[in-house]
Amino acid sequence: QVQLVESGGGLVQAGGSLRLSCAASGRLFSGYAMGWFRQVSGKEREFVAGISGGGGITDYADSVKGRFNISRDNAKNTVYLQMNSLKPEDTALYYCARARLIVPNHAARAYDSWGQGTQVTVSS
After folding, report:
1. Residues 6 and 117 sit within 8 Å (Cβ to Cβ)
2. 95 phi and psi, to 5 degrees?
3. Number of other CB atoms surrounding residue 58 within 10 Å
4. Is 31 helix (H, G, I), strand (E, B) or coil?
5. CA 99 to chain centre
6. What DSSP character marks residue 102?
7. Which residues contact residue 58 at a Cβ distance below 8 angstroms, ignoring those fewer than 6 apart?
8. Is the Cβ–Cβ distance between 59 and 34 less than 8 Å?
9. What stretch of H or E contains 22?
10. Which residues partner with 99 through β-bridges?
11. Which regions in the chain score pLDDT beneath 70?
């Protein structure tokens, strides 16, 4: 079972940037797609971005396209989410997740391992 640990969350003003990191334990990290999801209390967890095992395929929610960038360093077993031009509506608990397959998917059920989350708060 892989363990995922997110970091990099915090409080930022609207228009600012944050970079989230997710460190994964275990072997064969490059064999799985990784994703970032976010959740606001009382709402369902929503897909933010995903990246294939080799990093060649990325996918984004429409709400973050052009502002967020997902990347990974397989040598470091780490996936990143660079978030720019942040908006108050980006405020949420952000989760890193490992997919069951090598390509990303928007559905949370396609992911079998989750981190504990890191809080991102964007003030207006």
Report:
1. yes
2. -115, 145
3. 16
4. helix
5. 12
6. S
7. 49, 50, 51, 52, 70, 104
8. no
9. strand 18-24
10. 111
11. none
Q: Are 45 and 98 in contact (CB under 8 A)?
A: no
Termini Cα distance of the chain: 39
Q: CB 118: neighbour CB atoms within 10 A?
A: 20
Over the stretch 85-113, which tens digit does the pLDDT of each residue have? 999 999 999 999 999 989 999 999 999 99
The answer to whether 98 and 4 have CB atoms below 8 angstroms apart is yes
| Local structure of residue 59 (DSSP, 8 states) | E
* Chain length of the chain: 124
Query: What does each C-alpha distance from 121 to 30, 39, 87, 94, 111 come to in angstroms?
Result: 30, 12, 9, 10, 25
CA dihedral 65, 111, 119, 42 (to 10 degrees): 90
Residue 75, exposed/middle/buried by CB under 10 A (0-12, 13-18, 19+)? exposed
The neighbouring-strand residues paired with 114 are 97
The position carrying tokens 């976010």 is: 38
